[in-house]
Design goal:
mainly alpha; 75% helix
Length: 191
Amino acid sequence: RIPPGYQARLGAWSAVLMAIVGRAREAGAMARTALRQSRQAEDPLATGYALHALTLVSDAPTALGLIDEALTGLGHDPESADLRLLLLNNRLNYLTALGRREDVAKSLPPALVLAERAGTFRTVGLLATAAESCYLQGAWDDALVHLAGIEPEFLSNWSNLNPAALAALTALHRGDREKADGYLAATGVDE
């Protein structure tokens, strides 16, 4: 009785969970099934989730292609805003890891605009990713600007690359131990 598009969404989410617990082979099979079902159902959101699930069991270049395909298929439907932010964040992480600085610089501004408009917890992840990317490129001022956009209650959130620790590293690079200690105090971790 579950509509085919929702069956595909459930399959894709199950594939994501399988990938998270380290069952990559099963996750890949489930994601491919969900992708086939989503395309038959003509459900762009289900297709996006299925493609996202496949990124979790793919190498970086393949994952980037899957992310781009998912983003193209999702368009600008408000229902897909959360998934778009997740995909954009992951895309920036892959681009950073692959050393594609120009692509990061081009992709970051529109991603941050969407994050600001959406105003979800995904915004924190995107700001943390932006900060990490800037930090790795030596653009410390830009990294600190992105970190400053993160609400204080999220500063020690380990799932978001631990923004306070990144700010502390930036302060240490600048020789400011006092400021680094202040950032570390926000993490709640003993020195």
